[in-house]
Design brief:
8 strands, eight-stranded antiparallel β-barrel, about 10% helix, 2 helices, mainly beta
């Protein structure tokens, strides 16, 4: 929680000189997974919902003319997978993690002859804070040991880290003054399971989503 407070304090400080602020709600639908662990695994479908704000960092002297923004988000999302330590037994384990995410984007609108277009790109770091962890491994640990394997080899019995970070990118287009649609890809750079040493485990997902603008301040 202290890290979350520090991040938001920095965002508020950096946005004091913003030309204008647009804000709204956003949501997405994704397929994600926890890569690098759990042997044979398949990603789960999930979703996110959150709030965002566009802080213009170039002049916005004509209505909605700014083409470069700092765009932080605060969101809640789920990510997980179905897995099997023994590839003959499909989807015997289930892993579902819920996070509060804080991606901080630089948002750039493509310009045509100096005028702001409808197509934009966003990229930036993302910080995630574990809210809940639900693992259903059944008797996988006992079965692996009975078969003569170390359960740790397959990532069984691991606990997720409470904090992580990564990178997030979007490609979006304005539908109208209120609505955007986008494609988003997130890739973790920190280990989801810090005690698992066989490989680096990380979160990842590919999403489609919408952003709806609620208002603007100048």
């Amino acid at each position: 929680m202290k890290k979350l407070i520090v991040i938001f304090s920095l965002l508020v400080f950096s946005s004091v000189s913003s030309q204008s602020i647009k804000y709204g709600v956003t949501g997405s639908f994704h397929k994600g997974s926890i890569a690098g662990i759990h042997n044979a695994s398949k990603g789960n479908f999930g979703g996110s919902i959150g709030l965002f704000a566009d802080f213009s960092i170039v002049p916005n002297d004509i209505y909605d003319s700014a083409w470069l923004y700092l765009t932080p988000q605060l969101e809640l999302y789920a990510i997980g997978e179905k897995a099997s330590w023994n590839e003959k037994d499909n989807n015997q384990q289930k892993y579902n993690n819920t996070y509060i995410g804080v991606p901080i984007y630089l948002k750039y609108f493509i310009r045509n002859s100096g005028y702001k277009g409808d197509l934009y790109f966003m990229i930036g770091p993302k910080f995630e804070f574990l809210v809940s962890e639900k693992n259903e491994e059944g008797d996988a640990v006992n079965k692996a040991m009975t078969a003569g394997y170390d359960p740790a080899k397959f990532g069984l019995g691991q606990k997720a880290d409470s904090f992580g970070y990564g990178i997030s990118a979007k490609v979006g287009v304005k539908v109208d003054d209120k609505l955007d649609v986008f494609i988003r890809f997130d890739r973790g750079l920190s280990k989801v399971y810090p005690d698992y040493v066989a490989q680096s485990s990380y979160n990842r997902f590919l999403a489609i989503g919408l952003s709806y603008y609620l208002g603007e301040t100048n």
